[in-house]
Every structure is written in C-alpha cells, then in structure tokens.
C-alpha cells in the first residue's frame, strides 16, 4: 500500500501534519482519506487526529502523544485508541473504537515519526508539566468549558 506524501508544518507553538491515511472498509478494501495530526504546546500531553476534513466540523480524536510514540515500537494505548505496527513495514495501524464499532486506519510510519520528532522539539518528553497553564485549565473547567477553554473543542 502506498501513501501520498505528507506535509509537516510547525510554528512557534504548534505542529500540524497533513497526511493521507488508509481506511479499512466493511468489505475489507482500503481507501485513502485525508487526515491531519495536530499538536499544541498549550496542551502538551495530547495530539489531535482529525478525519473527514471536508466537513465543516471534522471528526477529531484526542489522545496521548505517548500512544503514538509507543505504537512506533510496540502496541500503544488501551481502550478507544490503539496504535501499533502492522504487517506492512511502512504503515502504522491506528484503531479508533466508536459507537458503530472499531475504525481501522493505516498511516505512514515515517511521516508520523517525523511529526513526533517535531512535537518533541516543541516540548521535549518529560517537560510537558512545565508547559501546562494550570490556572487557565482550572478556569476553563470551572466555567464549564474543556481544557482548551472553548467548550471542549481542540485548540
């Protein structure tokens, strides 16, 4: 299976990777869809994975940056999101558990690894706590919003 080339962008506090992933259909066929991985220094433990980019409101999954890292070497995650290497040495399998059953995606290993390296330049592993604004987080939670301060939407 081949992937279209991915585009990595990093600013002062954010990284974004536009990529093509392959989605396994109910019939066992694989189809390419556009997706995006995002990282925000203000939310240093999390990555955001967007699919259905053509919609006004893309479908966004938020999970630990460590899950992606673990998945590059061994299986990462438990529950709703798991990431692991698969039979294709160039692909990383991402399984998202939803109400309608699991969704199986494959993403290019080298692109995801490059994205992770870029996030580590933004916030090195182990220093995430230094980048948390706990006062802002607490205010947002007390005001009824999510960690990003806007009713739970990703930054």
Task: Give a description of the structure.
- With 155 residues, the chain is of the alpha+beta class.
- It has one domain: Transcriptional Co-activator pc4, Chain A, CATH 2.30.31.20.
- The protein has helices at 65-73, 109-122, 134-142; strands at 7-10, 14-24, 30-40, 46-51, 59-64, 81-85, 91-98, 101-108.
- A hairpin with a 7-residue loop joins strand 4 and strand 5.
- Helix 1 (65-73) crosses helix 2 (109-122).
What is the architecture at the second tier of CATH? Answer: Roll
Number of domains: 1
Structural class determined from secondary elements: alpha+beta
- DSSP strand tally: 8
- At the fold tier of CATH, the topology name is Transcriptional Co-activator pc4, Chain A
Provide the helix percentage. Answer: 10-25%
- By DSSP (H or I, 4+ residues per run), the number of helices equals 3
Task: Give the secondary structure arrangement, pairings included.
Elements: E1 7-10, E2 14-24, E3 30-40, E4 46-51, E5 59-64, H1 65-73, E6 81-85, E7 91-98, E8 101-108, H2 109-122, H3 134-142
Antiparallel strand pairs: 1-2, 2-3, 2-8, 3-4, 4-5, 6-7, 7-8
Helix pairs in contact: 1-2
